[in-house]
Sequence to fold (296 residues):
Amino acid sequence: MGYRRDPRGSALVTGRSHVIGLMLPHAHSFATPDPFYSLVAAGVAGGASKAGYNLMLYTAVAEEEGPRAAATIDRRIDGLILVIPPEGSPIFDECRRQGITTVGIVQDPARSPLTVNSDDYEGGRLATEHLLSLGHRRIAHLYGNRDNFSNEGRYLAYVDTMREAGIEPDPDLILEGGFRRDNGFHSTKRLVGMPARKRPTAIFAANDLSAHGAIDAIREAGLDIPGDISVVGYDDTWYASITNPPLTSVSMHVDEIGRRAAELLIGGIEGRLEEDHAVIPVSLTVRQSSGPPPHS
Fold:
């Protein structure tokens, strides 16, 4: 008979809009070359659509933009997913005040009732064990931003796995990669500038963009990958397959993180939570950027 439900009338009766919000860390996250954010958004959109919810995008959750972003939150949404939210953001208080359910992606579970993270410790262990199994002993680590929750697990796993293999990590081989290509490039220039006997034979970078910067710096120094230095990244988005050589990377299944966050949020909205803190398993994809160390 051509009947269509009026979402405004339904919202008045049920008290729900069937709309969830997604807030990325910065306004430029929507156009960044890092595919992490677009894959998270795609996963959230897919999970929302499957449950019959629409998706509203918000501009930023970053600390410097927090008060302005908090002012945009209202009851047009039933819940909000925040990607890499900073500690102490006023958005959380505003959502609590309005009774809006929130889920944090890449957030310390101790600071939010609902979170979705990847198993970063396991990912760091997989990357480091892979390089150790190839025979590497001088393994450098380009860590991410210290205020990013995912950084700690990856770094601690690198340190623990090296020590379990009887190798004390060299502080000179631990530099900031910053989750950015330019940071990875400049940090790796410092590494490849070391005397040959001190230079690392492998680099574990905290994400694929940082690893790509490392590849560029190694090539600029006239060295071969993986003949002279192996490189392993983290994320394993499509980006890892277009580097030269293709990048060995820890797959954190980014779209699955987004989809699981949507499911968790909607479960909280509808009062049918099955878990509070989801941890998505990781795996290692081996490509041409990693190989045995060069012979002495």
Observations:
- The first strand starts at residue 19 and ends at 23.
- The chain has a mean pLDDT of 90.
- The longest helix spans residues 35-50.
- The chain has two domains: 7-118+253-282, 120-251.
